[in-house]
């Protein structure tokens, strides 16, 4: 009987403040969608790091005829200098760190360049002799690239030793900045949602102040009086949370997996398993924020 009475009070409150309830639903939906997108973006960054860091190579660029620097004072790297680098890679000092390596000569580098930049006018101006001969090295532990850099950078005929992870870090930094921006926007929207829920509860309590006074006179407890208002906030927030979960699922299903993944098949993307993790988080966060803000509003401002 008490439960039915509480549900009746909840329904009354929702009907009296339909416009405010819709506002709470929309603000919660938008804010939690940003939260979900930020979480997914962090997951995506983590997946890409795991995927690409293992594939990142160390490039040992040999001098060309146009290279500068002390190591390239003699012009293009000769056969002896190239052999010296290979001897270092095969040495007992570096072998424990190396998984595999291969050598790319001028012709191979030019062929790969033409494939990579097919249709670009720059291919008309680049010749094979302008491209460096290169040793491409896969390390057992990509984080130990400094060992190769220190061992090989000073050898004659070596133009530079470059860890490809440095290029990846720039990309991941941009993605992280976008993720933090989404988190900032989501935080502002969540604050707006909390304030809106609190305002809705205050208005609902004010419109029923006479009934609440009667309930207090007949001995109703504070918990019995407050519960309908808290449930109003939770219900409105849950609707917005569920909509945000649907939006996140749609983003992953149709945008990430349906369009982005086929366009970029050379990397991994978040999928349904990640959605299963994110959506419950959004629903729990929405319900908790609504319950806490409603509890605070009714305790702080309701006078009966």
TrEMBL record:
Domain of life according to the entry: Bacteria
Protein name: Cell division protein FtsX
Keywords: Cell cycle, Cell division, Cell membrane, Membrane, Transmembrane, Transmembrane helix
Keyword NADP: no
Species this chain originates from: Herbiconiux daphne
SUBUNIT field: Forms a membrane-associated complex with FtsE.
Gene that encodes it: ftsX
Family: Belongs to the ABC-4 integral membrane protein family. FtsX subfamily.
InterPro entries: ABC3_permease_C (IPR003838), FtsX (IPR004513), FtsX_actino (IPR047929), FtsX_ECD (IPR040690)
Membrane topology: Multi-pass membrane protein
One Pfam family named in its UniProt record: FtsX_ECD
TM ranges: 21-45, 177-201, 229-256, 276-298
Subcellular location: Cell membrane
Function statement: Part of the ABC transporter FtsEX involved in cellular division.
Chain ranges of the ABC3 transporter permease C-terminal domain: 185-298
């Amino acid at each position: 009987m008490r439960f039915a009475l509480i549900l009746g009070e909840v329904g009354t409150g929702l009907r009296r403040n339909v416009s405010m309830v819709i506002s709470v639903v929309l603000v919660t939906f938008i804010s939690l969608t940003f939260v979900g997108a930020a979480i997914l973006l962090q997951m995506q960054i983590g997946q890409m790091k795991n995927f690409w860091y293992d594939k990142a190579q160390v490039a040992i660029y040999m001098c060309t005829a146009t290279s500068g620097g002390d190591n390239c004072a003699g012009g293009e790297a000769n056969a002896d200098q190239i052999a010296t680098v290979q001897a270092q890679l095969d040495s007992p000092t570096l072998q424990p760190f190396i998984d595999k390596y291969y050598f790319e000569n001028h012709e191979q580098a030019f062929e790969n360049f033409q494939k990579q930049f097919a249709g670009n006018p720059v291919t008309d101006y680049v010749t094979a002799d302008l491209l460096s001969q290169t040793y491409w090295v896969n390390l057992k532990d990509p984080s130990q690239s400094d060992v190769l850099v220190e061992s090989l950078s000073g050898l004659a005929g070596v133009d530079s030793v470059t860890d490809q992870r440095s290029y990846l870090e720039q990309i991941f930094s941009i993605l992280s900045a976008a993720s933090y921006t989404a988190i900032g926007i989501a935080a502002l929207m969540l604050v707006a949602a909390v304030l809106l829920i609190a305002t809705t509860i205050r208005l609902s309590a004010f419109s029923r102040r006479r009934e609440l006074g009667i309930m207090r006179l007949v001995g109703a407890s504070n918990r019995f009086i407050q519960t309908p208002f808290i449930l109003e906030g939770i219900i409105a927030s849950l609707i917005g949370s569920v909509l945000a979960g649907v939006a996140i699922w749609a983003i992953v299903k149709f945008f990430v997996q349906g369009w982005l993944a086929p366009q970029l098949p050379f990397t991994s993307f978040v999928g349904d398993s990640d959605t299963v993790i994110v959506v419950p988080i959004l629903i729990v966060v929405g319900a908790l924020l609504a319950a806490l803000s409603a509890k605070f509003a009714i305790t702080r401002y309701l006078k009966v």
